[in-house]
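Backbone shape codes
____________________
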Amino acid sequence: MLRQTSLYSECYSTSSLDEVGRTLGGSKVKLGWAIAMLLGLASLMSAKTLVAQAKIVGVDARGFDLRVGTETLRAEDGVKCRFWRNYGRSDRAAFASGDEVVVRLDIGSDPADLREMAEAKTGEWLAQIRSKPQECVVEKIENGDMAVVLAESRKFTYRVSDKSEIQLKGRTDAKLHHLEKGAKVWVKGRLLPTLDTWVVLISDQPLEDPAEKKPAKKPDTPERTKSAIPALPNSGKLEAKFLACLLTLSMIDVVSGSKTFHITFTRETKFVMQGKSVSPNQVPKGTDCVITYKRDSQGRIIASKVEFFPPRGIETEHGTFNRRLY
């Protein structure tokens, strides 16, 4: 399973968790949504853009077959798709089956729309440029493009405009024409929907990376220690509320306290409601449940039994239930 750290969290929210739950419960489950769930994105389930590590398992004239986590996803590229290799722009001919890549996908369509592909090391390099300040030397500024030379003599082109903030020699009102070829600067960029990286700030002084600011650690107090969420043991029972079922991935999502868990089930997993077998995709969202589980060697939570307890007075095909867990 792909670790969540392999995903660059970048999404554009378009619908609520309730709507996603209804979509997943229907017959038109999108594999892209399922993969987003597989990656542990409970809070980002409504994302349309997914950026993840993948392996190319097939290539044809229209697109690529990608292995993302444990699933295979079809993605087709168009003329606007950007390809990167060896720290620079490339083309689709540079990629073949077996390559490890970072892909940017629009999973709101079926098949997914491939917007960008980079081999793994270049993908990590791009992510750093787009999110962290970079030390560089100005090479050329022309028609809204600023070409620079980064560390290890690698070249990159930013988009720059009059709205870019420029700080030079203590001045915060400096303009683009004050930048000279060969000037050593630090640049903070931001990715645009067009996939260009726009200059937010240019300075002749090192820029602090906000991500490296670590708040001072507060000493533990009895109240703070008591409120901390304990780690889930490797095996046992979990009391939770049911959120959604993803049959495509053999997975259900539940929430316990403030934490969401992704529970994997197998052919041997028993789903029970009031003593009767039940299919998890028929269970209403919000239903209380008790999950008997054990973690496997990959850390996944594997359920051996899931017992559901619907709210009092709820009518289902199994009858009207009046028992609650809590």
